[in-house]
């Protein structure tokens, strides 16, 4: 029973030669480790000797291996990052593709970015014919937790591209290793620079594109070379560059100019429309959840629907009308553009079984948040008033002293 559940795997003995036959061809395999200049990094190595006169056999073997053991490429988005010594790219993680509807953004954001990126990928010749560098930069800016990273993952899935994360703030990533890594980017890919404001520290000034500002301390000095990196690299042809930031104002205009960042997209806190859609994702109607057209038409609860206490969805079945009504009620509770989608997602996650509980809890939560906002605004106001009074006192004191001296 145990064996039935787990896939058997074979591991060759270290540095010993093993033989097996695949599709009638004898193959020897040795598992070893490659010595490396870096003491702490050892690359594993698998040496295969294939005894065949057919040069195409290697391709067949790789395809077979991928089919049996490899992940299903069509279903995954791969995220690559530099290895520990910033010498080459490696797959650091993979994620299942997100369905288009799971990202809740107004169509003028989601569709526009998606269509623009598709158009770019389909029109290499157009760029080449006109001598325009074949790359496209997108700057996604706005409040945290509003879907910037999620949109990039969605696009990677839709366009079948890997994501190469450029860790600008990573220790040891100097100008030359970064240039090498940029040169190693594949022709069609998404290059991602997250929180670009932190990496470029307020600056086209440090980019060598808008004058040169002296570094303030040693730490800046260490990063000097890296800060000169231009997000419009000479390499990276055919690559889609995404940069994200929560602080647009901290970025230099030169960094954001077309050619570097061609499309700017603002992300805001959740609108009522988004709140409603998000609620719909958590509490879909039974027919939507089961995807059964007949049920949808009948608006009835199918007999085989067995609500589970542990389900991510409602413990009770919902008709289309009920699901719509609950979602509408939730959106009425949530103030327009006040909370991020990530915050609302967290709120709903703690009440994911009963839609009415979620709505009631949201009412209480929103009230508390509004009171908190009001209290902190009042405090800020009082601080400001106090500061003003103190400044006024100081000015009056200075005035009196001046008059007395005269
Ligand atoms: N518009 C959205 N639609 C669906 N889910 C969202 C949306 N915005 C945020 N989320 C959810 O909130 C979480 C954080 O989202 P994400 O990382 O995309 O935000 P972000 O804008 O990139 O944040 P940051 O600026 O802090 O990096 C994720 O779990 C994501 O699923």
UniProtKB/TrEMBL annotation:
Cellular localisation: Mitochondrion inner membrane
Biased composition (Basic and acidic residues): 221-231
GO molecular function annotations of the record: ATP binding; ATP hydrolysis activity
Source domain of life: Eukaryota
Entries under SMART domains matching the protein: AAA (SM00382)
Reactions catalysed according to its record: ATP + H2O = ADP + phosphate + H(+)
Annotated keywords: ATP-binding, Hydrolase, Membrane, Mitochondrion, Mitochondrion inner membrane, Nucleotide-binding, Transmembrane, Transmembrane helix
Gene3D superfamilies: P-loop containing nucleotide triphosphate hydrolases
Membrane topology annotation: Single-pass membrane protein
Residue ranges of every copy of the AAA+ ATPase domain listed in the record: 134-271
GO CC annotation terms, alphabetical: mitochondrial inner membrane
Entry-linked Pfam families: AAA, AAA_lid_BCS1, BCS1_N
The name this protein goes by in its record: Unplaced genomic scaffold SPHSTscaffold_415, whole genome shotgun sequence
């Amino acid at each position: 029973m145990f064996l039935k559940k787990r896939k058997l795997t074979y591991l060759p003995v270290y540095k010993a030669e093993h033989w097996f036959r695949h599709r009638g061809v004898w193959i020897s395999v040795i598992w070893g480790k490659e010595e490396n200049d870096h003491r702490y990094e050892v690359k594993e190595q698998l040496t295969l000797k294939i005894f065949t006169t057919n040069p195409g056999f290697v391709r067949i073997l790789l395809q077979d291996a991928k089919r049996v053991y490899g992940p299903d490429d069509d279903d995954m988005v791969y995220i690559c990052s530099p290895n520990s010594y910033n010498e080459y790219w490696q797959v650091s993680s993979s994620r299942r593709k997100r369905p288009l509807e799971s990202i809740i953004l107004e169509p003028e954001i989601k569709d526009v970015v998606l269509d623009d990126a598709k158009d770019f990928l389909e029109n290499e010749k157009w760029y080449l014919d006109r001598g325009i560098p074949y790359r496209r930069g997108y700057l996604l800016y706005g409040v945290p937790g509003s879907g910037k990273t999620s949109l990039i993952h969605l696009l990677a899935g839709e366009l079948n591209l890997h994501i190469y994360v450029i860790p600008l703030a990573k220790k040891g990533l100097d100008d030359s290793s970064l240039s090498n890594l940029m040169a190693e980017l594949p022709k069609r890919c998404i290059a991602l620079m997250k929180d670009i404001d932190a990496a470029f520290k307020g600056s086209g000034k440090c980019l060598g594109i808008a004058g040169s500002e002296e570094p303030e301390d040693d730490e800046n000095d260490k990063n000097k070379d890296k800060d000169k990196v231009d997000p419009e690299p000479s390499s990276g042809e055919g690559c889609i560059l995404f940069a994200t930031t929560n602080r647009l104002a901290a970025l230099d205009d030169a960094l954001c100019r077309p050619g570097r960042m061609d499309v700017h997209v603002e992300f805001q806190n959740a609108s009522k429309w988004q709140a409603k859609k998000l609620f719909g994702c958590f509490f879909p109607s039974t027919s939507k959840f089961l995807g059964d057209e007949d049920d949808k038409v009948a608006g009835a609860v199918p007999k085989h629907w067995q609500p589970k206490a542990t389900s991510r969805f409602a413990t009770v079945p919902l008709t289309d009308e009920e699901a719509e009504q609950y979602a509408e009620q939730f959106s009425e509770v949530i103030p327009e553009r006040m909370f991020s989608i990530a915050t609302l997602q967290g709120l709903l996650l703690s009440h994911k079984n009963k839609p009415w509980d979620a709505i009631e809890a949201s009412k209480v939560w929103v009230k508390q948040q509004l009171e908190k906002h009001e209290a902190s605004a009042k405090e800020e106001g009082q601080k400001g008033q106090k500061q003003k009074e103190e400044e006024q006192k100081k000015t009056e004191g200075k005035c009196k002293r001046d008059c007395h001296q005269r």
